[in-house]
Amino acid sequence: MTTENKLKDFILNNYKSLRDFSIKCDIPYTTVVSVINRGIDRAGINTIKNICNCLSIDINALAKGEIVTLNHINQIGDDFVMKYNILNDEGKERMELYLNDLLTSYKFTSDDDKKK
């Protein structure tokens, strides 16, 4: 399934129609249809940001062809912080060292981060 079809399905699972989505998100209907029909890669970045903001989905995940809600991302972050807070000072220090080691090894970073 294409990214555009995933996006369309996600919209239709959360709104009555594409038109309903466009009205509630203040995005022209023709723009929404154009993104679905012509492709996300042909849309302006502001249009995609508006769509993602309205749907509460991650724009980086969408660029990779995935629909990931921000609630899911926030839950992962919240779980990580909760576990970190349980650690004593030595555990927190080791966790920070381990995380820094992971980040300096390109083996464990996303392709986007390797380009920086």
Show the helix and strand layout.
Elements: H1 3-14, H2 18-25, H3 29-38, H4 45-55, H5 59-63, H6 70-86, H7 89-104, H8 111-114
Task: Identify the CATH class of the largest domain.
Answer: Mainly Alpha
Low-confidence stretches: none
Q: Assign an overall shape.
A: elongated
Strand content: under 5%
Largest sheet, if any? none
The protein's oligomeric status is: single chain
Give the count of structural domains.
Answer: 2
Total beta-strand segments: 0
The CATH topology of the largest domain is what? 434 Repressor (Amino-terminal Domain)
Provide the structure class: mainly alpha
Percent of residues in helices = over 70%
Q: How many helices? A: 8
Radius of gyration: 19 Å
Distance between the termini: 30 Å
Which CATH architecture of the largest domain?
Orthogonal Bundle
Order of helices and strands: HHHHHHHH
Compute the average pLDDT. 89
Compact description:
This protein has 116 residues and is mainly alpha-helical.
Q: Could you walk me through the main structural features you see in this protein, from its secondary elements to its overall organization?
A:
The protein has 116 residues and is an all-alpha fold. It has 8 helices and no strands. The longest helix is centred in the last third of the chain and has 17 residues, at 70-86. The chain has helices at 3-14, 18-25, 29-38, 45-55, 59-63, 70-86, 89-104, 111-114. The mean pLDDT is 89. The protein has 2 domains: 3-68, 434 Repressor (Amino-terminal Domain) (Orthogonal Bundle); 71-111. 72% of the residues lie in helices and 0% in strands.
